[in-house]
Amino acid sequence: MKTDPKSNQRSERDISEHAAKLKTYRLNESEYELISKLLARPPRGIEWALFSALWSEHCSYKSSKVHLKKLFNKSARVVESFGENAGVVDLGEGERVAFKIESHNHPSYIEPYQGAATGVGGILRDIFTMGARPIALADYLCFGEPTASRMTQLVNGVVRGIGGYGNCVGVPTITGQTEFHESYNGNILVNAMAVGLFRPGDKIFLSKAKGPGNWVVYVGAKTGRDGVHGASMASESFEADSAAKRPTVQIGDPFYEKLLIESCLEVMKEDLVVAIQDMGAAGLTSSSFEMASKGGVGLSIHLDKVPLRDSSMTPEDILLSESQERMLLVCEPRKFDRIAAIFHRWGLDAVTIGEVTEKKTVELHWRGEVLTEIDPDLLVENAPQYQRPWQPLLPQNRVNERSEIGLKETDWTTFLKETLTDVRGTSREWVYRQYDSRVGASTARDCRDSVGIVRLKDSERGLGVVLGCRPHVMRFDARVGGVDSIAYPALELALKGFDTLAVTDCLNFGNPERENVMSDFVASLEGMNSICAGLAAPIISGNVSFYNETMGKNITPTPSTGLVGLRADVKNLPQSTFERSGQEVYLLRLPGLVVGGVAQEMRQKKITGLGIADADAICAFVRMALKLSEVQGVEATRAVGKFGLAYAFARMATDGFGARLDFEALKLARGGEIDGAALFEEHLYEAIFAVDSARARALDEAFAAVMKTWHASGVKPTLTRVGRTVAGRLEIGSLIETDTASLIENYHQGWGRGFADLH
Amino acid sequence: MSLPVGVLRFPGTNCDRDVFEAVTSQGARAEWLWHADRFDPKGYRALLLPGGFSYGDYLRAGALAARSPVMDSAREAAQRGVPVLGICNGFQILCEAGLLPGVLIRNQGLRFIDDWVELNLVNAQPHFGRRMTAGIRARLPIAHADGRYYIEDDGLKRLQDRGQIWWTFSKNPNGAMADIAGVMNEAKNVAALMPHPERAMYEWMGGTDGAAFFDL
Q1: Conformational region of residue A366, where left means phi above 0, alpha means psi within -120 to 50, and beta covers everything else
Q2: Which end of chain B is more exposed for a tag (fewer CB within 10 A), N or C?
Q3: Chain B residues with CB inside 8 Å of A133's CB?
Q4: Cβ distance of B115 and A168 shorter than 8 Å
Q5: Which residue from A minimizes the CA distance to B115?
Q6: Of these residues, B88, B96, B127, B144, which one is catalytic?
Q7: Which residues from chain A sit within 8 angstroms of residue B56, using beta carbons?
Q8: Max alpha carbon distance in chain A (Å)?
Q9: Percent of chain A beyond pLDDT 90?
Q10: Per-residue pLDDT tens digits for A291-302
Q11: What ipTM was reported for this prediction?
């Protein structure tokens, strides 16, 4: 049979064009086939770009959705959860809070200042788009080693970017966490959390478009070319060419955002809005299609009415632009004039770009032409869900002997000072001094403390915010790391008298197409879930950031968390440092798991552990810590964390009062012989209490009372008096003896030693 | 009924509600004054310019706000002797408007600073914190990137000679000339400082030294 060589050539060219198109739009062949099936024809023109954006990992959660469905997400307090811009919990007394944490890792690595700044801007919009006034910010940052390429520039840019945006927009940064490890050398993490408050009477606004004939209104900044294809960029691993992706990073303007906050809250206060959503990842595409899909209605949108910075932009550019400080809202036509007047008063534009239609179809118009008519569910609801391969996690780092996790130092006082100057243990003052911690005049505790606290104006109660996930525990074991990413911050909250209400999480992982990454992902979610369920603290919002991989190297699995807790008032909050001499010092301890911790990583570049982390016992321990922290006379509390007990005591001594700790009592508390190494191991979990000596008995009694009802199987906590506070000295038996002045000096000088150019 | 206190509000001002509440918490009545509108200069017993980032601090901190319509009325009120207090960005605006001598430039370390500072009261202020006498100390929060007071030598000498230095920093955080944290005009009815008294009103805020500033 003869073949026509010409037609053969053409089909080869078609094949290569088709492959190039798939590559451009970051879709694979099976996704292409699914799209063709859903549409009953191959995608055309603009539809390629729409599917590319909304079916990206970033927007569709296609690798994680099957697992996220299993998250513990219910409690009587939950008002809104996943599916809206942020989760909302009811605080009672008419007050509610919206909060969420979100990643901006890829943009921040490419362009640190703008990447971090727009991360803050984006998460704030998720909050005020619901009608809540933002009242607090928190940042979870993971950097590489200080000596890694570009790291000084990245740290500087990210911190300046967060400050530059948050300070100007006028929302206080009240807590944060900053980690350093070589696994982040080529892929830093920048996760920003925002908390917003609905005061009594404030209405919650959702993103469901409703009411055929209602208008679709574009408000805020004009659309430019920045951030086009940002969502798909964030869904890929980094290769060598990350600098070439700089144009996909958005540019932020916090002044504009401030105007947008005030004007949006004002139109909501006057109840002029039917539905509202910010234009975040995948810009106008995601906001319009999601609003239509959620509302079960159609939208007719005229792209040629979108305010542009550059008149040569194509419909595809307009749809995918991630220009910042823009919102899409739906309103009744008769209310438009009032809306426009409010935005104009704040110097912003409000432009009608379309309307809500009965038939569930999004129509996109461009200069008299209909570009597409498409069912929004196809893009929003019908993205593929992948069951990526994974294996049950095997404990790999467990050892059978305590000696296998021990350090072999000779001078433990010197080692303690080394932990205080190491970048992993030194003061983060350089970071948080650049953030406004008190704008809003509601801050009761800031980044200087273990928990950020704002006072709620109407009820005068305290709202506590703390971030979690300790990457070194994740490196030990992803399931234990998941447990710890809820349990440790919950313990920190409990020790300041806060009951954890709910959680937001930002799941930063590597390439989900790798089995070990997916296995860690599943195991850490299981760990998180066990504690969330035990504490009745649902996960109500968050995001997933996959493909944190550079040149084939994946980051430490890092499910960062933000916990929000409530307390009856902000009076008599326990301090985190010793503030006078003569206090009795107690160690509250749950026997369970011991890991070598950050000290072991520092010396041996690995982390091993002995024992198990029992979720039931840990949850009961957290509840006990809350009870004990409420005892009259408890003046200071601290969870024992990285670098173990010696470091925790040293941190408590940074206000000039230290302690004299009895070695025999510590032995008793730990239930056996201890050596210097044991003072730097990390026990899950321990907490230090400093109590007014006249009232110490009340603490013992409260402990005994809780123990009467202790039912968690197997392990039992202990409370042991281990010493007394003194002025100017820290002594732990004869192993550690130092004046507090040198501890303070080391703690504050370490940063400059790690980053000589950042001071 | 006595006249209200006017609180000026520019686009980007973000300590506006904090200052408004600080005023009302101390028993006075407060009213908003919008940047685009002029007002009756005889209608207010005092004017407050809160901190923040008016107009995003674009061009220079305070430069655009100083030229807005509301400031025409504020200038007239100041000339009539109405007490005017600027806090942080309000200080920058008053300098840019020529109602106070000197300027505020970028901090010495070129970074934003958030911290608590100790201040010394050099010359008493007859309107804002009028019960505080020279020589006392106060502890207040600061939060600024452009808080380094600068003035030429002869100007500094004039400030010193005429008792116009209001507060100095005990430990200079930003490189301010002569440790200056706050100044007054010659008539002493216009005063401003970089620290934020509205953020130190109650024990739970970490200090109470700010409350006295709002006893109007």
Answers
A1: beta
A2: N
A3: none
A4: no
A5: A433
A6: B88
A7: 168, 253-256, 258
A8: 103
A9: 87
A10: 999 999 999 999
A11: 0.97
- Which residues, other chains included, contact A23 with Cβ-Cβ below 8 Å and sequence gap of 6+? none
Say if the Cβ atoms of A163 and B55 lie within 8 Å. no
What is the domain count for chain B? 1
Residue A3's pLDDT is what? Answer: 47
Q: Is A269 on the interface with B (CB under 8 A)?
A: no
Of A256, A438, A570, the CB nearest to B143: A438
> Which amino acid would we find at residue B133?
T
User: A439–B109: do the CB atoms touch at under 8 Å?
Assistant: no
Question: Which residue from A minimizes the CA distance to B89?
Answer: A168
Convert the pLDDT of each residue in A666-692 to its tens digit.
999 998 888 999 999 999 999 999 999
The mean pLDDT of chain A is: 94
| Cα–Cα distance, A627 to A156 (Å, whole number) | 41
The Cα of B132 is separated from the nearest Cα of chain A by a number of Å equal to 23
**For A490-518, how does the pLDDT look when each residue is reduced to its tens digit (9 = 90+)?**
999 999 999 999 999 999 999 999 999 99
Residues in CB range of A78: below 8 A, 6 or more apart: A87, A88, A89, A90, A502, A538, A540
Answer yes or no: are the C-beta atoms of A564 and A502 closer than 8 Å: yes
- Which of helix, strand or coil describes residue B3? coil
Min Cα distance A570 → chain B (Å) is 6
Phi, psi of A727, rounded to the nearest 5 degrees:
-80, 130
* Percent helix / strand / coil, chain A, rounded to 5: 40, 25, 35
Q: Which of A67, A104, A106, A181 is catalytic?
A: A104
> Hunting for tokens 């959860």 — which residue is that?
A81
Residue A282: pLDDT band with limits 50, 70, 90 = confident
Q: Is residue A412 less than 8 Å (CB to CB) from chain B?
A: no
Q: Is the pLDDT of residue B187 over 60?
A: yes
**What is the C-alpha separation between A362 and A328, in angstroms, rounded?**
15
Is B127 designated active site? no
Task: Indicate if A229 belongs to the active site.
Answer: no
Q: Output the pLDDT for position B207.
A: 97
Q: Do A438 and B205 touch (CB under 8 A)?
A: yes
Alpha-carbon distance A371 to A364, whole Å? 5
Across the range B149-161, mean pLDDT stands at 98
Give the model's confidence band at A231: pLDDT under 50 very low, under 70 low, under 90 confident, else very high: low
Q: Cis peptide before A140, with omega less than 30 degrees from 0?
A: no
Residue B129 and residue B132: Cα distance in Å, rounded?
6
The tokens of B143 are what? Answer: 């939060």
Chain CA centroid to CA B78, Å: 14
b/e per residue, A475-498, with b = 16+ CB within 10 A? Answer: bbbbbbbbbbbbbbbbbbbbbbbb
SS (H, E, C) A58-93: HHHCCCCHHHHCCCCCCCCCEEECECECCEEEEEEC
The DSSP letter of residue A147 is: T
Structure tokens at A88: 């909302």
- Alpha-carbon distances, residue A503 vs A499, A560, B164 (angstroms): 12, 10, 52
Mean pLDDT across B185-212? 98
Structure tokens, A451: 């928990």
Query: Tens digit of pLDDT for each residue in A108-140?
Result: 999 999 999 999 999 999 999 999 999 999 999
In eight-state DSSP terms, residue A398 is B
Query: What tokens does A288 get?
Result: 């319009």
Query: A751 CB near a chain B CB, below 8 Å?
Result: no
CB of A441 less than 8 A from some CB of B? yes
CATH of the domain at B166: 3.40.50.880
Range of the domain at B192: 5-214
pLDDT band, residue A241 (cuts 50/70/90):
low
- Report CB contact under 8 Å: B11, A258: yes
Quick check: pTM over 0.90? yes
